[in-house]
Amino acid sequence: MFSTGVDENSQKNVQAMEKSGETDLQAYLDRMSDTWKTTWEELGIVFDTFVRTTEPRHLAAVSRFWNAVKQSGDIYESVYEGLYCVGCEGFKTETETVDGKCPLHPNSELSPVKEKNYFFRASAYREALLNHLDENSQFVQPESRRNEIRNYITEHFTDFSISREAKQVSAGIPVPEDSNQRIYVWFDALINYLTVTGYGTDDKMCAEWWPADIHLIGKDILKFHCALWPAMLMSAAKNDPLLRDENGNPKLPTRVFAHGYFTINGQKISKSLGNAIDPRALVPTYGFDAVRYFMLREIPFGEDGDFSESRLTERYTHDLANTLGNLLQRTIAMSRKYFDGKVPPSFSHEAKYTFADEAGIRAIRNAVDTNMEACRFDLALEAIWSGVDGAHGLLHANKFIEDTQPFKLQKTDPTATGAILYSILEYLRIISLLLAPFMPDVSERMLKQLGQNTDSNLSWGGLKPGTELPEPVVLFKMLNN
């Protein structure tokens, strides 16, 4: 289950609505939700469920969760006094500010706040959180974030205000049995991960799908997901059997992976800073698959990286057009020319005329699987392009054709030519499947050009000799300079 969605119980949404000149908040939220859904569709991002935090199913989940935490004795009333950042939707301590400003939203003033709120007794779970981090090294990734969150929990983790006075905010879910308070946006937003599993609406479904295998988040919201969220779950699990395993332990997400920032000239890309790049603007030139490829290949996931359209152009031209696209087009063209428009017979021949085999493909498959599991998408793609142990990458496949020269060999040894072309076609079939998570459209077009309608066989030898090969079509068009 792949879930995404929108957090709607936010004062930022109210401000954005007012800035747009609109007056109907629900109509504004409906329009923005549709915009996000359309954007994901345009970028080829396919999700199983899209959650809006104003939905009835989410309200049911929040109500159940709040009451479970309350029954644990971990919700109490107190007065909050301090600074609040609307951009972060978060309260700030002095140690979290730079020159009196939020480092993530330096153009916005921090608002002094003094309110009577409900608090969550988060500090009661400090030791349990530290033990969980020590016993589950994969819980927070990458390693640098794990160290960061451990220091935060040790030095700064305190009780949290989890509500706002209704008179101070015009958005938010009412606190159960107290209409004068609204649930703090982060407390309600985190519960969305339970909402999509059926928590509060479908116990059987929730038991099947919770806990999550992985949360993918931005590093700026690390403390909410890796400290506050597990503490909330530990508390609620005391009174909700759906949130406990068979041994009575709280069911926490298996892993939280915090990605870094894309930057431009060293500055974080941010809507609030006004320097955001809409990836859809790049699609007409490069295609959305090329944009996806560049983002995942160029910047190690979990680290910061600077966006550069000149680097995108280089990757597009070298990696995609000249390496992948050229290999597919020339191999199909030669196969059609020399073997009556069909996949050549799978001749047994000397090893020097076979580019890859089951062992070589297995090595690449294993490297891709290992790196995907570790969220090292850049290394997974590196294994496809550069191969494993210096062999069987896309770059080697092009060199293999140059070295064996099947276009010349056809005159003296057509059997060898067939062996060469079949091995490259079969190799490309498997590579197209490995590329599907990264470039779904390109993967599908590659399979069609190889005469395959549907395919999921990652073992060597799945391409049937004699299969009709359509006329090759350019995968990546030439860029206009």
Please explain how this structure is put together:
- This protein has 18 helices and 15 strands.
- The chain has 481 residues and is an alpha/beta fold.
- It folds into two domains: 257 residues, 3-Layer(aba) Sandwich (Rossmann fold); 161 residues, Isoleucyl-tRNA Synthetase, Domain 1.
- The strands form five sheets. The protein has a four-stranded antiparallel sheet. It has a three-stranded parallel sheet with strand order 6-12-11, with helices on one face. Strands 8-10-9 form a three-stranded antiparallel sheet.
- Helix 4 runs antiparallel to helix 5 and helix 12 crosses helix 15.
- The longest helix has 30 residues.
- The protein is elongated, with a radius of gyration of 27 Å.
- The two termini are 42 Å apart.
- The mean pLDDT is 92.
Keywords:
481 residues; alpha/beta; Rossmann fold; Isoleucyl-tRNA Synthetase, Domain 1; 2 domains; three-stranded parallel sheet; 18 helices; 15 strands; 13% strand; elongated
Write the layout of secondary structure elements.
Elements: E1 3-6, H1 11-19, H2 25-42, E2 49-52, H3 56-71, E3 75-85, E4 90-92, E5 111-120, H4 126-135, E6 140-141, H5 143-156, E7 160-161, E8 163-165, E9 174-175, E10 178-183, H6 185-190, H7 192-195, H8 203-209, E11 215-218, H9 222-237, E12 256-259, E13 262-264, E14 267-268, H10 283-286, H11 288-298, E15 305-306, H12 309-338, H13 358-373, H14 377-386, H15 394-404, H16 406-409, H17 414-434, H18 440-449
Helix pairs in contact: 3-9, 4-5, 5-9, 11-14, 12-15, 12-17, 13-14, 17-18
Give a brief outline of the structure.
The relative contact order is 0.09. Strands 4-3-5-7 form a four-stranded antiparallel β-sheet. Strands 6-12-11 form a three-stranded parallel β-sheet, covered by helices on one side. Strands 8-10-9 form a three-stranded antiparallel β-sheet. The chain has two domains: about 5-260, 3-Layer(aba) Sandwich (Rossmann fold); about 290-450, Isoleucyl-tRNA Synthetase, Domain 1 (Orthogonal Bundle), CATH 1.10.730.10.
